[in-house]
Amino acid sequence: MTQVLNEPIYVAQLHELSVGIGKKVTIDCLELALFRQENDDVLAVENRCPHKGGVLSDGIVSGEYVFCPMHDWKIDLRKGEAVAPDVGCVKTYNVSIVDEAVYIVVKE
Amino acid sequence: MLKQKIILIGNGMAGIRTLEEIIKKDPHKFEITVFGEEPHPNYNRILLSSVLQGDASIESIVLNSYEWYAEHQIELFTGDPVVKVDTSVQTVTSQNGISRSYDHLIFATGSNPFMLPLPGADKEGVIAFRNIQDCETMIDTAKHYKKAAVIGGGLLGLEAARGLLNLNMEVEVIHIADYLMERQLDDQAGKMLKEELEKQGMTFRLNAHTERLTGKKRVDGVRFKDGSQLDADLVVMAVGIKPNVSLAKDSGLEVNRAIVVNDYMQTSVENVYAVGECAEHAGVVYGLVAPLYEQGKALAEHVCADQPLSKPGYQGSIVYTQLKVSGVDVFSAGRFQDGEHTKSIRVHDEFEGIFKKVVVENNKVIGAVLFGDTSDSPRLLTMMRNEQDISKMSKVAILPSENESDERESVVVAMADSETICGCNGVTKGDIVKAINDQGLTTVDQVKACTNASRSCGGCKPLVAELLTHATGEEASNQKEPICGCTDLSHEEVTAEIKDKGLNYVREVMNVLGWSTENGCSKCRPALNYYLGLNQPIEYKDDSTSKFVNERLHANIQNDGTFSVVPRMYGGVTNPDQLRKIADVADKYNVPLLKVTGGQRIDLLGIAKEDLPKVWTDLGMRSGYAYGKSIRTVKTCVGESFCRFGTQDSIGLGVRIEKKYEGLSTPHKVKMAVSACPRNCAESGIKDVGIVGVEGAWEIYVGGNGGVDLRGGDLFAKVATDQEVIDFISSFLQFYREDARYLERTSHWVERVGLDHIKKVLADDETRTQLIERVELALTGQQDPWNEVLESKDKQATLYEKKEVEVIN
Asked: Mean pLDDT of successive 10-residue segments in chain B (809 residues)?
């Protein structure tokens, strides 16, 4: 997998993602959560809450935020940061969309 | 710069409190060493009587654990008393030969129990009541012996006697005066106390002068001066304490009755201080907790100050005391005996067993005795401390508990914010209310941890609890509680608006009602989704993006991100076919754990999300609804079909109820149960709706909860037929669905609106009929959610599929 680092990886077609419902994507051993926005942007983060590893793709989505289904932490999907008073952050990933095809860049 | 060194002799309450005050002021200023004689960390000696009475464990009365010492880098030597102090070179040496030098030396050596020098006092079975070891001895003795005698009818003696009663010993209290607690009570209250304790099983011998203790090796009795005798296998001496001053004397400190100190707790020797029961301030030696703490504070201020203090220092304490014997409330403070220039207010109600006396001199309260109802004690103490002029006050203002009108305000409400609630730790009402509000505290223990209130003698616990109820209860009833941070509107306002304006979508509600966030949050969205469905049960299209994962996916998320699946088994009844299917599925999907739930169903745990639809297909059973805010299970006992005692067909009724209300959404989860007899094997008493069969009838209980706030259900009605049970459940559930706030359990709802209110609403025939009609409407068109998913490829793809991306190297 190291060879494809920094190169966009195709992960899904846009229509496979649904506004308001996260999608779990695994790339080898890496687990991501994709969130389609109303303007058809897609935000991608590491799929584990910084608190106790809750699966973020299963949380309630509110625009650019997701509420962890385990203990209701609120995570900012653009910055990857937990919203105060909680602290911690998840990795975020760059997404590019070409003709409805969604690509992710996984940087080391 | 080198840190200054503090050595504390004595690991008890006064000394450690002084250290706490010092650390609070300046956590890094000193290097601290503590020597203690007892082999324990600092514990709450006042609560020893609670340990003896079985109300507390030894662990629970530890005030500062070993971790606390470590955390503050305090060097601690337990079971190793200091034996030598050299004040000329400022060093101390312990029994084990440990030597340390000091810049400041604090004596907090406390006191020893005073043992009457009676012949026979050295026999086995003669003890004091002063430390953990004494407590343990009494507990051990009670296992082998029956008769105990307590010498001393004061505070400590009575608390020890009560403890021995609890240990099933026969107890006789021997007292030298003609009434009990003569140093704290006047004769009237003392006599009432005796009567009360006699009711509890204590026996007394007043005006009794002990001559000797009899027995060979072990004590076997007490002989009195008048020649009479008493058999006793255990003798507890609780006649008083004497300050422990031998080391101070040997070290050259000025000692009178105790170590003489000034207002800054300084002894006659430079850099040496004394606090607590071993100290004598202005001719007074205190043996109670509040003064010790006030002294500790004064000393901490003094040693932490860089400049000599201009503050006045310690000015003596108002002494007050409270008896810790369950069922007996006694309080006394200050100078309570009538004198030449005093007048007093007295209340004496022999029927209620209440006695109150407030002693006044020069228009100021100088002392009080309360027996039977001590709720006015904090107020009286504050008046004494502030030397408040009471010449213009009515009796009711001085003793608010005497206000006989029905709408009597709680004593805490009348208190000013500056009034002290916890005298031991100097915590005011204002401090507590602030902590409750700022930090959202909901239990006495939280208040204790945050403010120190009721951490010592615990006498103010009822007041703290009252304050808590008041602070939080008032908020609930008077202050509007918005649904969440996205809006100022309450649940009730939102549901009213949804009806009035005919709103149909979650997003529409948020737009029309001016939500501050565009997309809402995890609190308001599920609530709005519920309210919309409630308003239009047929037309509304459920918004799955506004649902918590368990309800969205119809399976319970577990801490590792896998899910658990509970198939439906009506009434908890199953058969070999179902069990075989479950077993096969468990094998096929390598289910790591199978478990029977609290609601009598089988839970398959550890299933991957993407496998859920396959698991359901293979099971071929309906969803057990163990996931949602909805009707869950109806637990049943075996009942008349097999049970010797069962009076009714509990399984039959349970199955019927579960089938009828299957899938109905509710503000929170709803659990039900049917038991066929009052033995209650299905635990109907702690269910949202619990049915108990008795001969020829069903009893219906509501508002029970076995969850976080354990609550027994309230008996609502007794009906004769199954159909009446169903009709009741329909109307009750629909009223709950419409009236409760989202995420409010029936237990909280019943308490908030009151059982009588619910009874009144459901008593009206027309209302009841309409409620039943509305629940029937909501129940039409209920579908099994697992089946719905299996029929929709779209749902399966959106909700359950995960994307796996292969990376080609």
From this structure: 89 93 89 93 86 81 89 93 95 95 96 90 92 91 93 91 91 93 85 90 93 93 93 93 93 94 94 95 86 90 80 84 79 84 86 87 90 82 83 74 58 77 81 84 77 75 80 52 84 91 92 90 94 92 93 93 95 94 95 93 94 95 92 93 85 95 95 92 94 92 85 92 95 95 92 90 92 93 89 91 77
Phi and psi torsions of B238, nearest 5°: -135, 65
Angle, alpha carbons B528-B532-B533 (nearest 5°): 120
Q: Cβ of A72 under 8 Å from any chain B Cβ?
A: yes
| Tokens at B199, concatenated | 């009711």
How many Å apart are CA B114 and CA B238, to the nearest integer? 8
Report CB contact under 8 Å: B804, A26.
yes
Chain centroid offset of residue B83 CA? 42
Interchain pair B807, A9: CB under 8 A: yes
DSSP letter string over B177-194? Answer: SSSTTTTTS-HHHHHHHH
Cβ(B674)–Cβ(B660) below 8 Å: no
Rounded to the nearest angstrom, the minimum Cα separation between B802 and chain A is: 5
Q: State the amino acid at position B555 in one-letter form.
A: A
| CB-based contact, A23 to chain B, within 8 Å | yes
Please, what sign has the CA dihedral across residues B384, B387, B388, B391?
A: positive
- Given the structure tokens 């440990």, which residue do they identify? B98
Contact B549 A4 (CB under 8 A): no
Question: Which residue, B138, B131, B149, is CA-closest to B61?
Answer: B131
Cβ pair B218, B210 in contact under 8 A: no
Please check whether residue A71 touches B, CB under 8 A: no
Number of other CB atoms surrounding residue B769 within 10 Å: 12
Binary contact (A58, B609; C-beta < 8 A): yes
Residue of B nearest to A72 (CA): B522
| Residue count (chain A) | 108
Identify the closest residue of chain A to B796 by CA–CA distance: A16
* Sign of the alpha-carbon torsion through B449, B454, B458, B464: negative
Q: Which residue of B has its CA nearest to A4?
A: B809
CA distance B493 to chain A (A): 23
C-beta of residue B411 within 8 angstroms of C-beta of residue B378 = yes
Query: Phi/psi at A100 (nearest 5 deg)?
Result: 70, 0
- Please state whether beta strands B803-805 and A23-27 pair in parallel, antiparallel, or not at all (unpaired): parallel
The 10s digit of each residue's pLDDT in A14-38 is: 999 999 999 999 988 889 999 999 9
B492-508: b or e for each residue (b if 16 or more CB lie within 10 Å)? Answer: eebbebbeeeebebbbe
Which residues are bridge partners to A64 per DSSP? none
Q: Which residues of A touch B807 (CB under 8 A)?
A: 1, 4, 9, 27-28
Q: Which two tokens stand for residue B311?
A: 């503050």
Asked whether the beta carbons of residue B557 and residue A28 sit closer than 8 angstroms, the reply is no
Q: Which residues of B touch A26 (CB under 8 A)?
A: 802-805
For B599, the 3-state DSSP assignment is coil
- Closest by Cβ to A60, choosing from B518, B522, B561: B522
Q: Which of B545, B561, B809 sits opposite A21 (nearest CB)?
A: B545
Cross-strand partners of A104: A9, A95
How many Å lie between the alpha carbon of A101 and the closest alpha carbon of chain B?
Answer: 13
pLDDT at B527: 96
The predicted model scores a pTM of 0.53
Paired tokens of B284: 């007074």
| ipTM of the modeled complex | 0.92
Q: Which stretches of B56-123 are DSSP H helices?
A: 66-71
Q: List chain A residues with CB under 8 Å of B525.
A: 60, 62
Buried b vs exposed e over B573-597: b needs ≥16 C-beta within 10 Å? ebeeebeeebeebbeebebeeeeeb
